[in-house]
Design a protein that fits this description.
The protein folds into two domains: 204 residues, Spore Coat Polysaccharide Biosynthesis Protein SpsA, Chain A (Alpha-Beta Complex); 38 residues, no CATH class. 47% of the residues lie in helices and 18% in strands. The protein contains eleven helices and nine strands. The strands form two sheets. The chain has a seven-stranded mixed β-sheet with strand order 3-2-1-4-7-5-8, sandwiched between helices. A two-stranded parallel sheet has the order 6-9. Helix 9 packs antiparallel against helix 10 and helix 10 packs across helix 11.
Length: 252
């Protein structure tokens, strides 16, 4: 009987038509794996191909990633599909259009040695900066400080992921906020807290700002609040237009 390898980390990357961004992310993952004190073989990289029509799957396969297919066009389901096959003690999630810090695995490993930490995130640096983008980022900072919840590379113990049922597949967006909030609540019952490993911030893509403009975030927030207050259908339509624009094109 062949014994399965033991992994410390499973890095899960949801990807829908990410052939233009995935190679750059995987390059940074390779560097961070080489830098990991316990060796690169303690880390598995999982790409969940979310019904892509480009070379996303081919890139993942040729780069040695574990490849998973998920047809459901809901980002929470895509993250969960990757977690289902993960074998690492610690699950990590990062978007395909990001790039991770060279010391990511070491820093997260060190953080998770603290029994008072249940989960956390690295935070992000912007791929580019402008006054509009800076104002959008500053708008988010107080909420990050108050809640301890951030974005970038999100990580938790696999057992705790399973305990809270993973990501909520009923949510078309803000599934990451909901996920960390439920982990935070679980941690509160044990005297544990979330952490932010800001020494290893991920670089996040500005493609939404490139597409909609550097000041669009404030219009986005206003419309989202209006939709949530007055019409669930408008929330759904808003989410599909902004995060799942291919679904709208398929209807045309």
């Amino acid at each position: 009987m062949i014994e399965e390898p033991a992994f410390r980390f499973s890095l899960i990357i949801p990807a829908h038509n990410e052939q233009d961004y995935l190679p750059a992310l995987l390059d940074t993952v390779d560097i961070a794996r080489r830098n990991y004190n316990c060796g690169r073989n303690a880390i598995e990289v999982i790409v969940t191909d979310n019904d892509s029509t480009d070379k996303t799957s081919e890139i993942a396969r040729t780069r040695g990633c574990v490849l998973v297919h998920e047809e459901k066009r809901v980002i929470a389901a895509v993250r969960n599909a990757g977690a289902t096959v993960a074998r690492g003690d610690i699950l990590m999630f990062v978007d395909a259009d990001s790039q991770i810090h060279p010391n990511t695995f070491n820093a997260i490993d060190h953080a998770m040695l603290n029994n008072r930490i249940i989960a956390g995130s690295t935070g992000v640096r912007m791929e580019r900066m402008s006054f509009g983008i800076a104002m959008a980022y500053m708008f988010m900072v107080p909420m990050i400080w108050v809640t301890g919840m951030d974005t970038g590379v999100v990580f938790c113990w696999r057992n705790d992921f399973e305990a809270i049922g993973g990501y909520n597949e009923q949510k078309l967006f803000a599934e990451d906020v909901d996920f960390l909030w439920r982990l935070k609540r679980l941690g509160n019952t044990r005297g544990q807290r979330l952490t932010r490993v800001t020494s290893t911030k991920a670089v996040t893509s500005m493609r939404k700002f490139d597409q909609y403009g550097d000041w669009h975030y404030f219009t986005l927030i206003a419309y989202a609040l209006y939709a949530m207050c007055f019409s669930f259908k408008r929330v759904e339509n808003f989410a599909k237009k902004y995060w799942y624009d291919d679904l709208n094109r398929d209807k045309d």
